[in-house]
Design goal:
By secondary structure, the chain is of the alpha/beta class. The chain is built from eight helices and nine strands. 37% of the residues lie in helices and 21% in strands.
């Protein structure tokens, strides 16, 4: 059987994040990708200039069309900009029952806000309880936990417990917004904390890193990996994609990671 993953997310017209990054990641990892659009953004490497949200009806119809036909092994949820979007996604996924990787996309790499204020509480209420794993960065973890941004490992552990108390079965709090020579992500499943550490890379070509990591986890789960193995392999894939990103030279702002670093060499 061909492994299949579904991304439910927004479109990035610049191609570096959102649906585009997810489908590139699935393909790079040998997984067939299906998609459900939640919103369309006018976006490039400098930022987001416009957002057009899709109606709940068409979002729900896309989910039903895909899941009634394709044998989807895992679903990645990305940009959920409105409460009504979270509600329709949750309503349909409670019916279809699939493994869910939730990437709580709240702010773009450029700093542009990607969701309305009431969407945060809806995301907590509707989507966290459906998630096998949620993958916030440090600012997003603070918002989900209704807390200030973590400054220590003890803070991260406390916020991880709060996020699990809201219904998620596991949380990966990413350390990319931290400081120091190494970047550490913390995976907590309610019983133990696993650490994934990699050298911190000095690059401005990091657009779509969160989308790419969560999509890679979904690809691993769809391929039959355990959650721990899916996170570990996703981390390795993202680090390699980031290491190769500078050679891409896409745009004049914060460029994307190189999703196909193992397939073709940038600049040749």
């Amino acid at each position: 059987m061909t492994a299949i993953a579904l991304t439910i997310a927004g479109s990035d017209s610049g191609g570096g994040a959102g649906i585009q990054a997810d489908l590139k990641t699935f393909s790079a990892l040998g997984v067939y990708g299906a998609s459900v659009l939640t919103a369309i953004t006018a976006q490039n490497t400098h930022g987001v200039t416009a957002i057009e949200n899709l109606t709940p009806g068409i979002i729900g119809a896309q989910i039903d069309a895909v899941l009634s036909d394709l044998d989807v092994g895992a679903i990645k949820i990305g940009m959920v900009s409105r409460a009504v979007t979270a509600e329709v996604i949750a309503e349909r996924l409670r019916h279809w029952q699939r493994l869910v990787v939730l990437d709580p996309v709240m702010v773009a790499t450029s700093g542009d806000t990607l969701l309305e204020a009431d969407a945060i509480s809806a995301l907590r209420r509707e989507l966290l309880p459906l998630s096998l794993i949620v993958t916030p960065n440090l600012p997003e973890a603070a918002l989900l936990a209704d807390d200030t941004m973590a400054e220590s490992e003890a803070d991260i552990a406390r916020q991880a417990r709060l996020i699990l108390a809201a219904g998620a079965r596991a949380v990966l709090i990413k350390g990319g917004h931290g400081h120091g020579a190494e970047s550490t992500d913390f995976l907590y499943d309610g019983t133990s904390m696993q650490r994934f550490t990699a050298p911190r890379l000095d690059t401005t070509h990091d657009h779509g890193t969160g989308c790419t990591l969560s999509a890679a986890i979904a690809a691993g789960l769809a391929s039959g990996q355990t959650l721990l193995d899916a996170v570990a392999s996703a981390k390795a894939y993202l680090h390699a994609a980031l290491s190769s990103a500078d050679a891409l030279k896409i745009g004049t702002g914060r460029g994307p990671v190189h999703h196909f670093h193992a397939v073709w060499k940038a600049g040749t």
